[in-house]
Every structure is written in structure tokens, then in C-alpha cells.
Amino acid sequence: MTQIEQPRTFALGSHNVQRVGYGAMQLAGPHVFGPPKDRKAALAVLRAAVEAGVNHIDTSDFYGPHITNQLIREALHPYPDDLVIVTKIGARRGDDGSWRPAFKPDELIQAVHDNLRNLGRDVIDVVNLRCMFSMTGPAEGSIEPMLTPLVELQRQGLIRHIGLSNVTPTQIAEGRCICDIVCVQNEYNIAQRSDDALINDLARDGIAYVPFFPLGGFRPLQLSALSDIAKRLDATPRQIALAWLLRRAPNILVIAGTASLDHLRENLAVAELVLPDDVFTQLDAIGLNDA
């Protein structure tokens, strides 16, 4: 069986980052709202991730809100020189924990300053504009009014790079006419494959693709097939799903999140898990064929 070596790093703006990073979303309380159940454990996971070589952390000030950024600052500040922290703006949390759009220019500017303050940084490495035209997924609409204030903050030196999240190909094309876009963050996994062509186009242009919900959306038969492959390769289904993403395209950066040290170690081990060609083909069929 053939095994394909895959690149360990990919460019994210001006830095090359490890393709297995860390997503901080799960460090907040239930439903990404309020403080964590175990603050010391959350800090320990962050420190362990960086000690293991992770140099790409994905976060947002609307996680908590403010909680995950404050945890990141407490655990890791002063930050290692090679650590890239990516945040996203464009939403806010209601008092009841609801998710609400927040992409008026003044809201976006305030969100950048909130991220800077809570992270303890003078400049944010990457700010992803999360488009909230719909609460159920990407929806068309011009992003120029939201990108313009971010480009101005970039000119002022508060933002190093700009990315997009929850966007359509049309919006990405519009964004790239306004400024350099260094990454796109959309829902994508073995079972959710609507961005297949987009990923290939971005890879060709050297733009990183960061899938969220990398482990979601599986039907029972898909889960059964995933478990069978995991047993064959002496891995967990979670590891197989993440390894497929790394093999799928060289520009995919994985940011699976966890509040558990054990799960963190399991996720990071995926960097060493190389899928044989026949397994990769079988996994492809899980998402492309009807169950």
C-alpha cells in the first residue's frame, strides 16, 4: 500500500505554521458561553499545545464572550515569537448566549480593539471577517462595507493579515479585489464537501483553508465505515477524519479544539498518521456517495 508524505507546514500570511493547530472554542463554558468548568485544566491544555509545537491558535472574543482570549493571554503571554493567533469578528453574544450578527463598521472596529485588549497584543496576526448574512451557513451579499474598515485598521498597523469565514466563492473573489486574503474558514469535513472545488482553487493560489466542524455531520453508515478504517489503522475515528483533511489538500490547516489533555495529544498525533492511497479513496467515497 502506498503512503504519501504530506507537508507539515503551510503559509498563513507571513508565517509558516504547523498544519495541526489548536482551536480555542471549547475552552469556554457550555455552548461556548461563560467560563470553563475547570480553569486550571483549560490553561494546562493551552500550555501543553504550545509546548508540543503548535504555533497556530484559532480563537475569537465572542467565545465566552472574552473568556478564551483571556485564557490564552493568561496561559501564554508573553507569546512565543512564532505563535500565530487568528481571531474572528462579525458576531456578538446576547445575554442569553445567542449568536447575533455584529458587522457594522463601528462594531467591527470595536471587536478588533476588544481582541487586542483581551489577548494583550499590539497587533493581531490574522483577523477573519465572519459573514453573518445567515445563521445557517454562507449566504450571498457584498462584503465590501465590512472589509473596508478592516483594511483601514490594517493600514494603521493593528491587523497584520485578513481572512474570511462563512463565505461563498463570490464573496472570496470580491474580498480578493479589495485586499490580500490569507485564509478562508468554512464548514468542511468528510461528510460536508461543498467546498471541494474552492479548496483546490485556494491551494493553487497559496491561500490557507481552515475547516470548522471537521468532525461533524456523519450519518450512521458513514460513522460505521470510519470506525472500521480506524480499527484497521489502529487509530480513533476522530484521528482518521482529521488525517483525511490533512491528506485532502496541502493548504488545509486543522484546528480541532478540546479542553482535554488526552484529546489534545490524540489530535496532535494526527500529524504522524499518513493514510494509504486505498484508505484515502475509501474515505473520499464516504462523503461523495449516498449512504
Task: Describe the overall structure.
- The protein is of the alpha/beta class.
- The chain has a single domain (9-217, 245-273), classed as TIM Barrel (Alpha-Beta Barrel), CATH 3.20.20.
- It has ten helices and eleven strands.
- The protein has helices at residues 39-51, 67-76, 105-119, 144-155, 169-178, 196-204, 220-232, 237-248, 261-268, 277-288, and strands spanning 9-12, 15-18, 22-23, 56-58, 84-89, 91-93, 99-101, 124-130, 159-165, 181-185, 208-209.
- Strands 3-4-5-8-9-10-11 form a seven-stranded parallel β-sheet, with helices on one face. A two-stranded antiparallel sheet has the order 1-2.
- Helix 6 (196-204) links the parallel strand 10 (181-185) and strand 11.
What is the topological layout?
Blueprint: E1 9-12, E2 15-18, E3 22-23, H1 39-51, E4 56-58, H2 67-76, E5 84-89, E6 91-93, E7 99-101, H3 105-119, E8 124-130, H4 144-155, E9 159-165, H5 169-178, E10 181-185, H6 196-204, E11 208-209, H7 220-232, H8 237-248, H9 261-268, H10 277-288
Parallel strand pairs: 3-4, 4-5, 5-8, 8-9, 9-10, 10-11
Antiparallel strand pairs: 1-2, 6-7
Helix pairs in contact: 1-2, 1-9, 3-4, 7-8, 7-10
